[in-house]
Design a protein that fits this description.
alpha+beta; single chain; five-stranded antiparallel β-sheet; 231 residues; 21% helix; 11 strands
Length: 231
């Protein structure tokens, strides 16, 4: 019986290793909380007491960031971000699902578009795109309802940055007279950063070995039981 348990354990370990976990914590917000994430309002940290950061109704919650509304505290921007640790020399796939909307649109008089961007922070105030260059992964004005899907490969350059963050920032649009005071919101869901398929193929032999050992252990126990009884 001990041998059977050991064989099953090896098999389960092998299968578990084939499941490549995201380096993002709570990227799907399924527990209907912001655990793993950090919030920032206007560069002062998590200070909002109103509806700057919300969650969609369960089941299947998603993060919702708001600005430019009477029941929000932000005067400039709200940011949802998370520290991430990428293994050096490893390539990763970044995926996320976003949707936006605004109370006013370009068909309304005095409309000034709020906008958002998705980028990696390097810990010194710079924002980087997926190649590690200055810029953003995605940025757009908000003019009514729209949806975006991110599915890109990240450069290995990002894995050399020790204080890397993934940031979703929603900003208020201004002209010389101020904003249009029309609220905008950004919904964020299914955020994941996982090792690319190329890395999976490189690591596959070790996983196959674990599974093989597990199957061999089970086969050995079955054969032993037939010839001499269970131990």
């Amino acid at each position: 019986m001990k041998q059977l348990k050991f064989g099953c354990l090896l098999l389960l370990l092998g299968i578990a290793q084939l499941s490549y976990a995201s380096v993002i914590t709570n990227g799907s917000f399924d527990n209907c909380s912001y655990s793993g994430w950090m919030k920032d309002t206007d560069g002062f940290g998590d200070i909002s007491t109103q509806n700057d950061f919300m969650l969609s109704a369960p089941p299947g919650c998603a993060a919702i960031v708001n600005v430019d509304n009477f029941n929000t505290d932000a005067w400039f921007a709200n940011t949802l971000y998370q520290d991430i640790n990428l293994q050096s020399g490893q390539q990763y796939q970044f995926t996320a699902e976003l949707s936006v909307n605004s109370e006013l649109t370009s068909s309304d008089f005095g409309f000034i578009a709020d906008y958002f961007f998705v980028a990696f922070g390097d810990g010194s105030g710079n924002y980087l795109d997926e190649s590690g260059a200055l810029g953003s992964v995605l940025n757009a004005d908000i003019d009514g309802a729209a949806s975006y899907s991110i599915d890109i490969m990240l450069s290995e350059t990002l894995s050399s940055i020790s204080n890397l963050t993934l940031e979703f920032q929603l900003l208020i649009g201004f002209d010389q007279f101020g904003s249009d005071f029309g609220g905008s919101w950004l919904q964020i869901d299914n955020v994941a950063i996982t090792p690319s398929n190329a890395n999976m193929q490189v690591n596959a032999p070790s996983h196959a070995l674990l599974i093989g050992l597990g199957l061999a252990g089970i086969f050995f126990v079955r054969k032993h039981r037939k010839s001499g009884g269970e131990q």
